[in-house]
Specification:
The chain is of the alpha/beta class. It is built from nine helices and eight strands. The protein has an eight-stranded parallel β-barrel, surrounded by five helices. Helix 4 links the parallel strand 4 and strand 5. Helix 3 runs parallel beside helix 4. The protein is globular.
C-alpha cells in the first residue's frame, strides 16, 4: 500500500499505520505535484529508513533536460524512489534516453496516465532504460477514477507485461475503498491512495488515520 502525504505530520501518521510506501506529493499542484525539496529532506530525515519513501517531481512538460534536472534534484533529497510522469508521448523516447544514466544507481518509476490513452508498448523501453517500476495513474483528478478509463482486463495486461519485464507495478488514480477488490484482481505490486485516505475523501484535505487502517486491513 502506497499512501501519499504532504507533510512531516502526515508522513508520521502513515508510518504509524504501517503503510509499505510513503509517497511525498503536493495534491494542490496537480496529479504529481512536487513538494518543496527542503520539506522532502525533512520528511526523509524524520522517517529515517523506517519505511520506503517515494517522491514525485511535478507535472512537468516532457523536456529531457528539465526532467533530468528535476529527477536529480529530487534524488539528492535522499528519497528511495522518484516517480516521473510521462505526459506528452511525442517526447517519451528522448526523456527515457536522457534518464538512462540515472537508473543504474537510483530507483525510478515511470507513471503512465489512464486518461491519456497510455501506450503499454512503452513498457519494454522503460525496462530497457533501467527503471525500477511503472505505474498507472490519472492525470485529471476531477474526471473520474482509474476504472473509469481502463477495465480490470486492461489493468491485468499492464501488470502482466510490466512484471514480465522485471518492473514493479503500481495502480493509482482516485481509487476508493469500493475499487480495491477489482484492482487486486490485477495483482499489482502496490495500490496508491490519497483521496480515499483523507477527510471527506478530498485529496487536498488532511489524512484520516482510521481510513488508512481500514484500507490497509483490506489489503493484508
Amino acid at each position: 500500500m502506497l499512501a501519499s502525504v504532504t507533510s512531516v505530520e502526515e508522513a508520521l501518521i502513515a508510518l504509524d499505520a504501517g503503510v509499505d510506501m510513503i509517497d511525498l506529493k503536493n495534491p494542490a499542484k496537480g496529479a504529481l505535484g512536487a513538494l518543496e525539496h527542503q520539506l522532502v529532506k525533512d520528511i526523509v530525515l524524520e522517517i529515517n529508513h523506517r519505511s520506503t519513501v517515494s517522491a514525485t517531481i511535478g507535472d512537468l512538460i516532457m523536456d529531457p533536460s528539465l526532467i533530468v534536472e528535476a529527477t536529480k534534484t529530487m534524488l539528492e533529497t535522499g528519497v528511495d524512489i522518484v516517480k516521473i510522469g510521462f505526459f506528452d508521448p511525442a517526447h517519451h523516447m528522448e526523456c527515457l534516453d536522457a534518464l538512462k544514466p540515472l537508473t543504474s544507481k537510483s530507483k525510478l518509476v515511470a507513471v503512465l496516465f489512464a486518461d491519456e490513452k497510455p501506450n503499454f508498448d512503452l513498457l519494454p523501453l522503460i525496462a530497457k532504460t533501467g527503471f525500477y517500476g511503472a505505474m498507472l495513474d490519472t492525470a485529471n483528478k476531477k474526471n473520474g477514477h482509474l476504472l473509469s478509463y481502463l477495465d480490470v482486463n486492461d489493468l491485468q495486461e499492464f501488470v502482466v507485461r510490466a512484471s514480465a519485464l522485471g518492473l514493479e507495478t503500481g495502480l493509482a488514480g482516485s481509487i476508493q475503498i469500493s475499487h480495491i477488490d477489482n484492482l487486486c484482481e490485477a495483482k499489482p505490486s502496490y495500490l496508491g491512495f490519497r483521496g480515499a485516505l483523507c477527510e471527506q475523501n478530498k485529496r487536498v484535505l488532511g489524512l484520516d488515520p482510521i481510513k488508512i487502517l481500514n484500507i490497509k486491513n483490506m489489503l493484508h
